[in-house]
Here is the input.
Amino acid sequence: MRHPYRHVLMAFLLLGLSESSFAQRTYVEVEAGEMLDSVGYAAFKDRIVGALQTSVHPYFHIAQETFQEVRRNRDSIIVRVKLRFENNRPPGDSLSTKPSRLQVGDTFPAMKVRGLSGQPVDLGGMGGKPTLINFWFIACPPCLEEMPALGDIRRKLGDSVHFVAVTFEKPEAVYTFLQRQAFPFLHVPDAWGLIERVGVRTYPVNVFLDRHRVVRRIENGIPAEWREQGRLTSGSGEEFARFLRGLMGDRKYSGF
Here is the structure.
């Protein structure tokens, strides 16, 4: 006969909140590739949720934690976690998916920020060619899903376009993340000032600027595409690339 509290005990073991009789500790591998004990994992969740509630909406919370055992060592168990977020805002409390302080036709703020290695980045000096600015964060599944397509766009268009990735994550977290996930953009971490100035309230957000730094298009993730057998799959990014090619010509813009 099963003990009625056995499933509760197993949950505590999975989260690393207790140790087994063999002194094995459980470590959680988060999306950034970091290995966290129970204390570090709790702090990680608090940081992500706090950032979402501050920059997006106060009703954001973690709706689901999915754990998968990666490997088992003599003295430790490594599990990988994926988080799903929800925003249970009250009825009637509308939340636009577009930045609240940036519209098509505006000139993008000429702010001076810091790149991943601390180098100065002058957003006001990014004229002369189109720019794609992607707002993202590490534990955002839609952000991660579109990264391969964004990388393909970067490789296709090369230096003809400025590619900038902006996040509120700390530089060390972004650096660790990039060790396992290719994302060949110019990275601007810890960018709370820019995020608040633009009014980003949901992720991801992709902002297209022309060569004069005027906003020509604002989208969330790369649009999904219908494939064979009627399946809806992640977009290839070709629509984004086509629009950027139109901006490169600077005569007429691709209409979407």
Residues 129 and 211 are 4 Å apart (CA to CA).
